[in-house]
Amino acid sequence: MLRITGGKVYDPANGVNGVIRDVCIQDGRIVADVEAGRTINATGMVVFPGGVDVHTHVAGAALNFARAMIPEDHLHSEPFVRTAIRRGGISGATPTTYVTGYLYGGLGYTTVNEAAVPILSARHTHEELRDTPIVDKSTCVLMANNEILLDQLEAGETERARHFLAWCVGAAKAYGVKAVNPGGVTAWKWGKDANTLYELVPGYNKITPAGIIQSLARIVDDLGLPHPLHLHCNNLGVPGNYATTLETLKLVESNRAHIAHIQYHAYGGNDWTTMRSESTRIADYFNAHPNLTADAGAVLFGNTVTITADGPWQHLLYKLTGRKWGNIDVENETGCGVVPYVYKEKNLVNAIQWAVGLEMLLLISDPWRMSLTTDHPNGAAFWRYPEIIELLMNADFRREQIKKLPPKVLERIILPELTREYTLYEIAIITSAGPARSLGLRQKGHLGIGADADVAVFNDIKEARKMFAYPRYVIKGGEVVIEEGEVRKTVEGHSLLTQPFHDPKIADFIRPLFQQYYTMSFDNYPVEMERLEHPDVQPCTQANS
Amino acid sequence: MGGKVSCTLGEVKNRADLIVYWGGNPAECHPRHFTKYSLMPKGRFVPNGRKDRTMILVDIRETASAKAADIFLQVRPAKDFEMITVLRALIKEQPVDTKLVAETGLTLEELTDFAQRLKKAKFGVFFFGMGLSMTRGKHMNSAALLTLAAELNAFTKFVAMPMRGHGNVTGGDVIMRWTTGYPFGVNLARGYPRFNPGEYSTIDLLIRGDTDAVLVLGADPGATMPQPAIDHMVRVPTIVLDPKVTHTSKIARVHITTAVTGISAPGTAYRMDEIPLPLKPPLKSPYPTDEEVIRRIYQAVAKKPPLMPPVRPKVPRV
Ligand SMILES: [Zn+2]
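Above: the input record for the complex with zinc ion. Below: its predicted structure, written as tokens.
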């Protein structure tokens, strides 16, 4: 039993805006009152629901591939010395798994969504997530370039496509469905890309990226998955891509969709020298369409490594940077690319990217539909979130930073005109309540009775950057895990997953195709439930029909 | 420069129309490679299997694998790097030094034809073995070949993949990376991982006599390591976990017999393309699994006073 008393509580899901009240915890849940147990005096502090990251890359084959590619960067990463409580490891752009848990916990985050999992290596992802303490974990499985699925769409077998997709989510022990550069990664398997939404996907006679996007958004809604289609649009990172993004948003008008790292999809111009921000056009459309949620994918200057299932984009980035390039194509399913990258303040393109991330966060008016992310580690490492919070809450600080940019950037961005400053209430929404709602996790992101007892307590000070970098207390599932900036206890997280309904006969359909196209035996393909740490199946809304 | 451009083995099965084995002898070392993954299978985009594929073998001698090849290119020993450099120039249609060409033991015509085939492939793959990565030049050779594969992507689709050794070497590599950030050669003596191959790799530590004890798991270094390293294992307490008697277990102070992973113990093995396969044991064993033994050793050690204080101040972020 635990009582947090005297703190100013921000619980947007329950409309609580900076009210001094007690938060009581028993058996891992928020309760109305407790009679005994420890009391934390939070006078002079603010109390938030634990943070929720809707889009991050913290585990699995691609990230682990990236770790191997940047040993020279690890040398400069913060070391985590082993103690009796905590394991050793390193931080940096690709923290080791244990350190990932300590770092997220150390920011007051208690739930993360690993956004890109191939079914073929899902077992690997879950093994890493098991070694990631403190946070609860959900995953999204990559489907938009899955050739068995595309074959069904090509043949007009939408019903079978739905059963197949549902089977795949269950096999990967995933929570949601991700689409990355629909059709483009399939094209990449022949060294090509999909640059427009209405061109045929190589190897197919009927399907286009547009068709794939619409079908997937519809299937995800039909299955009643708690999280909408998690969509990484075509033409990521390319000047002029805002037009593709707008077209994509129109395609999913009658469905729900979550637009991943929207910053990377809001550029104007024709090439790298004429690139400009088109955040206003994207935000205007977005604001008028409540079926959409998004995350920022904001960029901060510095060293990082970019990792995505978007193989053709990574090849382009490699040609631009001339640095290292890693690529792994995954049979029948997806691809993955890794390119180490430095965002430079004095670089025109990078400065525009930095501004666009903040513009999207400031222009999207409803914080409930916009989550804070850096598409970790693509835009910056997640442990730099407090820097972004400072930029959002403090317009003066923002102006100081804008002064450091190359002057010719100013005519390409609108950030200097934006005066909005986020309130603490809004920060609680974009870091916790909003992403929890977007993910459809009813137990997360709030402090109402019955919610999971995931709580972060921060000093109530002016510098947001310091305030959010060093929480005073973090409580996960009712246990105090961080105290005075240190890991005091490590708990194991839960694996959040869904098991959408599928016709059991679909396995008979998949088996022979699988034997033909794959190199693993069909029976070894699905991840066994026993391999998950504390599996926690979340309900779908669809009836079993 | 460079990079690592690869894929899972199913991509080779479904797409590869040009397969190059370099410095390896799969016919004898990876006997199922041809039939399961590379040459023989009928794939999605190579429906006629072997007929749709061209196989080229590059090696210093004509091994058993040469019989399976359409073209055999015999490179002069220790001249792989030179040969790769010539190919990198030829694909970009740059002039090449005829002296350098002569050193490789191959003619300009042979190399030009090879370069053309590399560029014309729809989907090409280099499988490279110990003959490339463990001979003169070592990782420079592998790096050069990986770079050639990356550069070929300006013309077509090309990937490269190392042919790893036996056992679950890849699995060890993969787990070391997610727990320490590095694949091997990691020193944890300061309480956090530090990486320096050549300084912290096993052979170097043993030869220098830096370790007080040795724990051997799933390996037989007593059979393969240089004598000074073996001598050190004899000198200090060496503990071996192995289902059978090995060269190392014979010189060890303690040999704990364990169940055989995959036969009588469950687990995971990572394939050479880093795809994890579950191991489902058909038999039961009277012996404990490796995992169980390590857990019990760990529990016993945990009862001793901690080496590190319970909480250490975090190193401040800069
Ligand atoms: Zn991402």
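Notes for the reader.
The pocket of zinc ion is lined by residues A 55, 57, 115-116, 260-261, 308, 375, 378 (CB under 6 Å).
The mean pLDDT of chain B is 89.
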